[in-house]
Write a structure and sequence with these properties.
The chain is an alpha+beta fold. Helices cover 30% and strands 34% of the residues. It has helices spanning 2-33, 101-136, 142-175, 222-234, 241-244, and strands at residues 41-46, 50-70, 76-81, 88-89, 94-98, 177-179, 184-186, 196-197, 206-221, 246-250, 261-266, 276-283, 295-312, 317-318, 324-329, 335-339, 341-346, 349-354, 361-365, 377-380. A hairpin with a 5-residue loop joins strand 15 and strand 16.
């Protein structure tokens, strides 16, 4: 029994130091947990209203400035096609030659009839002159004089008739040379040599399109149109007539078209199927890079907002109801919640129309786990140091 008791005493003596060490460790841990957490560091931007030009980007399509469908004005057989498909042609250039033989014969026939009428006119005129002298001496009757005078009027009418016939025959002969009414690029030909064509036929022989300048037609919803008018009426936007009419173009591949365009007009009729009106802009196209029917985006100037509030997009989040919110740093370096009204995206920033005032410091980095009333340590935000992924607009962001 004694050896067993001795062992128990030794084990007990070994346990006591371990218990003391455990108590000391717990006390140290409690002291460490009582130390205050470090103040979160955040990056902020200071709200400073500034004037900016607001623009609208609208999809649209290009269309030719002028279009001429070439159709014959007389019946006949096509002798020659005098142009190369797909090239630029000049106004007045001969495109097709219709067989002129029958029209030349008709013109000669009319000219001969006109010459016969003119040859008969002097004799009738002399007869009237003689009858007029004899009538004064009562050598001829009044009826004879009246008959001679009527013959003169008929001869003069015949001359005028054949003059008109000659002119008509000459015009029809000229119509056998089908010319370009406008300058532009001509497309493919729908007929070849030897084809029979008819005057004003429904199928065009070819089509000429003027591509420099070129139209860009873009639809704008009536909702956006009314909203823009309200902003102008409220004074939130100022419009300069010269700047307002300037438009820029973004190509299908995302490149910016080097030439600026001019807004020409706004249609007054609303398309009932889309609820939009058409805006038409004119762009120079000297090198022919814009072709009719291309899908493009047109950037149109709306006006200048003299006191625009812009903040980086990562500084705006959403509450449970989807409303835009931001956290700011107040004068006591504590966070505060602001409910925002966001107008639109301007590049990688939001245009805020309500909820922020000049001088507010909006938190754009370090938002994780922050709540209103949290003490923070603010520092200026530098966009160059920001992660590009953070500049992506949040899901459900307003347009």
């Amino acid at each position: 029994m004694k050896p067993i008791n001795q062992m128990r005493v030794k084990i007990g003596m070994a346990i006591v130091p371990l218990a003391v060490l455990a108590m000391v460790g717990c006390q140290k841990a409690k002291k460490e947990t009582r130390q205050p957490a470090p103040t979160p560091q955040v990056s902020v931007v200071t709200v400073q209203p500034q004037p900016i030009m607001l623009t609208t980007e609208l999809p649209g399509r290009t269309s030719a400035y002028r279009i001429a469908e070439i159709r014959p004005q007389v019946n006949g057989l096509v002798q020659k096609r005098l142009f190369t498909e797909g090239v630029d042609v000049k106004a007045g250039q001969v495109l097709y030659q219709i067989d002129p033989a029958s029209f030349q014969a008709t013109l000669k026939n009319a000219e001969a009839a006109l010459a016969r009428s003119r040859a008969n006119l002097p004799a009738v005129q002399s007869r009237v002159d003689r009858y007029e002298e004899l009538l004064a001496e009562k050598a001829v009757s009044q009826q004879d004089y009246d008959d001679a005078n009527a013959s003169l009027r008929q001869a003069e009418a015949d001359v005028q008739y054949w003059q008109a016939t000659v002119e008509t025959a000459r015009i029809n002969l000229d119509y056998t040379r089908i010319t370009a009414p406008i300058s532009g690029r001509i497309g493919r030909s729908n007929v070849t040599e030897g084809a029979i064509v008819t005057a004003y036929q429904p199928v065009a022989l070819a089509t000429i399109q003027q591509l420099d300048p070129i139209y860009v037609d873009v639809p704008q919803s009536t909702t956006e149109l009314l909203r823009l008018k309200r902003r102008l009426a409220d004074g939130r936007l100022n419009r300069d007539d010269m700047n307002h009419k300037i438009a820029t173009l973004i190509m299908e591949d995302g490149a910016t078209y080097p030439q600026e365009g001019t807004l020409q007009f706004q249609d007054v009729t609303v398309d009932p199927t889309t609820g939009s009106v058409t805006l038409r802009a004119v762009f120079p196209n000297p090198d022919g890079s814009l072709l009719p029917g291309m899908f493009v985006h047109t950037v149109i100037n709306e006006g200048v907002n003299q006191a625009a509030v812009l903040i980086p997009q990562q500084g705006v989040s959403r509450d449970r109801r989807g409303n835009p919110i931001s956290l700011i740093v107040d004068d006591e370096s504590k966070t505060a919640l602001r409910m925002l009204t966001v107008d639109r995206a301007v590049g990688d920033q939001w245009l805020v129309s309500a909820g922020l005032a000049s001088g507010d410091r909006v938190i754009v980095e370090g938002l994780k786990m922050l709540r209103p009333g949290t003490l923070v340590k603010p520092s200026p935000f530098h966009a160059a140091d920001a992660n590009p992924a953070k500049a992506t607009p949040p899901a459900g962001a307003p347009n």
